[in-house]
Amino acid sequence: MSMPSDGTGASVEPALGTLPETAAVPAAAPGERPPIWPPLPRPVLIARIVIGVALSVVALYAPFYFTPENNRIISQALYLSIAAMGLNLLTGFTGQVSIGHGAFFGVGAFTTAILMVDHGWTFEATIPVAAVLSGLVGMLVGFPALRVRGLQLALVTLALAVLFPRLASKYVEGAGGVALLRPRRSEFASLIDGLDDDQWAYFVCLIIAVVLFVLAWNLVRGRMGRAMVAVRDQEIAATTVGVNLAGTKVGTFALSAAYAGVAGSLSVMIDRIADATSPILYLQRSIEFLVAMVIGGAATILGPAVGAFLLVWLRRNTEDLIEGKEILAPAIFGAALIAIVYVLPEGVVGGVRRLLARLGRRSSGSAARPGPASASDVPDDSINPGGSHDEGT
Amino acid sequence: MMRGPRPRWLAALLALALVGAACSSRDDDDDGAQTETGGEAAGSASIDTENCASDPSQEIEGDVIKLASSYPQSGLTAAFSEIARGWESYFEKVNAEGGVDIGDRTFTFEFVDMDDQYNAAETAQNVEEMVGQDGSGAFGTFSVVGTANNIAIRDFLGDLCVPDMFAATGSPAWGNPDYPWLIGSTLAPYTLEGQMFAQLLQDQKPDAKVAMLVQDDDFGRAYEEGFQQAIEGTDIEVVATERYPTGASEVSAQITSLAASGADAFFNGGTLLACPDALTKAAAANWKPITWVSGTCISKTLMGLAGAAANDVYSASNLKDPLNPDWDDDPAMQEYLDTVQQYRPDDFDPENAIVGYGYTQAAVFVEALKAAEAPTRLAVMESLHNLDGISDVGLLLPGVSITTAEDDPYMGESLMLAQYDFAGEGQRNHFVPQGDLVDFEGQTQDLTPEDLVTG
Amino acid sequence: MQLFIEQVINGIGNGLVYGSVALALVIIFRTTGILNFAQGEMALFSTYITWKLASESDGFGLPIVAAIGLSMAIAFVAGAMIERVLIRPVEQARSPLNVVIVTLGLFLGLNSVAQLIFGTDPQLMPSPFPEGNVELFSSGGDAVVVSKDTIGLIAVLVAECILLWLLLQRTNLGLKLRAVASNPDSARLHGIRAGTMLMLGWGMAAAIGALAGSLVASQRTGFDGSLMQIIIVYAFAAAALGGFDSLIGAVVAGLIVGIADALTVQYVDALEGIEVVVPLGLILVVLVILPNGLFGRRTVERV
């Protein structure tokens, strides 16, 4: 049993000689959740609340400030972050690499599109159905995942992402005989007077994203989260301490697929299209989710969101960077990805945290003091993908 | 080490800042979004303007016609961007010569484009961005590439009554009367290729057994159903059909299957690399049927890949082929080569047929503009729907006359049968026109299964 | 029956293609432990280089065999450089996901750069094998033939497998390569220069990929940027099916995938256009029954 680690992932000295204020932190009894608001030092707590409020104000005001076009882009980043979070639960926390989440995204998108276009459902009612359906598909995939591991699993999921558009294009028929569905714009009209359609769409995405992120946060802080990490880091040892391997793996697959499905469903509102005409689209989506997760910071809570926004921004700005050489856009994008991973191996969130820890250390001047496990991002320092605790710089 | 209390919100703020840096304010674009209703609705009311979200009879402000286009500029289908080189150079030439006169005003062309990588969702997004939610961003879209791509934007543009002109595929769906603001190009509808082949077989082998290779999507279905309809009532019969996965670049298993069917005629509906591969595999299997290749395969590069296996295959076109030495001294061909050389001396080969195609679309469009009664979207669209025999512009073959009417929105309805002559490696192998121009004027609706048009 | 055999031969032709690319994937895995998503695009880039060297109209007009050889050498160096410059620094941070992102970045970038340098038009690749067919047997009607290309490809692949196996299993160098893949730190403690071994592994895989790509392109009626996009998926499937650590497994699995695909085209009309379901479904079924693939060794997990 390892000692509780501190904020940075460095191997830890036993918690001797703790400073007075941290000695007052009640340790969590085994099996209990860490308290939501551990008694942090007052100024820190106030700073957090202030920042949290400021962030919320920005998020709430943004749609009234930005153009509809930009709101749409932000909403895209929001649904992308939901999918990335779903993948994070599976890959970042549970260690099952999936390059197939685009397929679950597609299941969600087409569920919504088909229900709306062919059966006249209202959009909002389709979201739960999309979540359940993609969750079911995820569960179906989760079972073979019990036998197939690691690299082979990654490739099986890749196969899914390749198969999905082919299957969809065979069995889905839209207007004009092409395999794409476009619900009418009026179907996504704002349900609240005073909110424009694009603002309404933004808020729907925002609220669902916040709810799902809080859900993920809760999950990860609790028993399930510890089980997930145990499966990732040391599967066999995990079973010996009573972690239900099958349940964890299948359950996480289902949940992460459901997240991707919700993201797909939201994408139908934002992009107003479910498209099966491109054989590589859903593979590209899978890659997007993976990239967003990694460059944001795998196995963190905010990472997927940060990564998603970064990804969207990158894509928009690499398109016509070099006039006359649009053909290079993917290369510039690829180079940017490599650069980010090079400079920030733990993603943006990991890198920022590292930076702040350094600043904190420099300013406090004293030796490392083991701080309480922060309530915001739960045991993620022991949660480096790959399980290594070395500071390998 | 101490963990600071800050990382979480800082990261989020960073993200928002990044987004904000690239974004503009909401108020910037709101001004002037409302269009005033001014001017009477132009002449013949063949297009219903009652439900337009913006007013199509408003005259263009200023002296610029701004065209928007979305087409693949990167990714695997980047070669399609060469179509744009053709029409861009034509428009620039017109600009250099003073512009085009519509009514009593003169306009020059301006064009914007975005890359969609052939992805329909991307196209939808691009077009909505370029045209704007109120339609004020551009006069209309021009030469958007891809059937699914145009389908993805036709509702949006139709509601706004913004023209989507010269959709760059031969889908019969462009004749759908529910979408009067979308019109196709001089590319003949795919179903007419089936007609041409049927006629050819009637002449050469009236009891032919036909094998068909088509792509497994709407494009393939247009060929399949169009040809089936064309052979109704004849002794020609389709004995085998193979649908290959969209985008496949080799079809050996499909050809083996077709060759074993005993067919003596072959409709090669393959496109891109699948087309020449089908030809070489057929040759390798010692199968020598009367072969038709898709109009999308008539290009120097694709036919060149097939080499000797392409000898004697048939196809049809309504454009002059830059590879054909007969047109070397043709003034129109010379002008085309000069124009492209002058305005778009990029690294592509003007002998590629799609560049000539793009060039010709611009030429036809300019004629349609001249014939428009007023510089409004409505009038221009009506002009496009009432083209009265435009000929001898761009690279149109002599005798080809572009005509449209109220119940016939198809421009490309005359075709010249041609047969490929492979003279040898490194030679100027090209399609040799056969016989006279075949005219299907006004017949496309009758010759096309209903579900392909309105489906 | 004849048709069946012809389709099997078609399947073998394609299967050899998948197998040859899968070989490169397996080599990289066995020497570095990494799944290289960019393998296909690296092979594509090398294929374009081969073409440029060999093309008489647009390139240097070298004899095709020399062009392939030279291209393989260039690929070897490039692969080693990629490992040193792009992969190693990221790998040191000990996150396999980061390496995946780098290979994905390469995957996106290489295709685009190739299009820029070599153009977007499809090109013809000359074949190093003689033209024509070899008759297998005739049964009444036309003879069943195998093209000399296919036979040549079989020969090359068999030779590759033998050489690689000899290298990995029977030489000191091979031992070092495998040691580094299995446990780099431990290998270092034994005085093995891990960095050099990793570079070698990538270089080898890149060279094999160059060979595979060039041969594949020569078998086809022209190639363009899309050459590897479909193939790489089948190659991954073949590598997974074969068990990632078996050379011969990769080739055999490739054949199985190719043949399954061709037979589905012929006999299963319901799956027209989506025949890819069968080989991929096959992979899934086999992996569930044999999680280490058909030829993979059982991995022992130490707790």
Radius of gyration of chain B: 24 Å
Strand % of chain C is under 5%
Q: Helix and strand string of chain B, N-terminal first? A: HEHEEHEHEHEHEHEHEHEHHHEEEEEHH
Could you tell me the radius of gyration of chain C in angstroms?
20 Å
Tally of separate helices of chain B: 14
The chain pair forming the largest interface, with residue counts per chain, is: A-B, 81 and 63 residues
Mean pLDDT across residues of chain C: 88
Number of strand segments of chain B: 15
Short descriptors:
heterotrimer, B: 455 residues, alpha/beta, Rossmann fold, 2 domains, four-stranded parallel β-sheet, 14 helices, 16% strand, globular, disordered N terminus, C: 303 residues, mainly alpha, two-stranded antiparallel sheet
What is shown here, in short?
The complex is a heterotrimer of chains A (393), B (455) and C (303). Chain A has helices at residues 20-23, 42-65, 68-93, 101-119, 123-147, 150-171, 197-221, 223-233, 235-240, 245-271, 281-296, 303-318, 329-343, 347-364, and strands spanning 180-181, 274-275.
Description:
- The complex is a heterotrimer of chains A (about 400), B (about 450) and C (about 300).
- In chain A, helix 4 crosses helix 11 (about 280-295).
- By secondary structure, chain A is mainly alpha-helical.
- In chain A, about 65% of the residues lie in helices and about 0% in strands.
- Chain A has helices spanning about 20-25, 40-65, 70-95, 100-120, 125-145, 150-170, 195-220, 225-235, 235-240, 245-270, 280-295, 305-320, 330-345, 345-365; strands at about 180, 275.
- Chain A contains 14 helices and two strands; from the N terminus they run H-H-H-H-H-H-E-H-H-H-H-E-H-H-H-H.
- By secondary structure, chain B is α/β, with parallel strands linked by helices.
- By secondary structure, chain C is mainly α.
- Chain C has one domain (about 20-230, about 245-250).
- Chain C has eleven helices and two strands; from the N terminus they run H-H-H-H-E-E-H-H-H-H-H-H-H.
- A two-stranded antiparallel ribbon of chain C has the order 1-2.
- In chain C, a hairpin with a 4-residue loop joins strand 1 (about 135-140) and strand 2.
- The chains are: A mainly alpha (about 400), B alpha/beta (about 450), C mainly alpha (about 300).
- Chains A and B meet through helix 2, helix 3, helix 6, helix 12 and helix 14 of A and helix 1, helix 3, helix 4 and helix 6 of B.
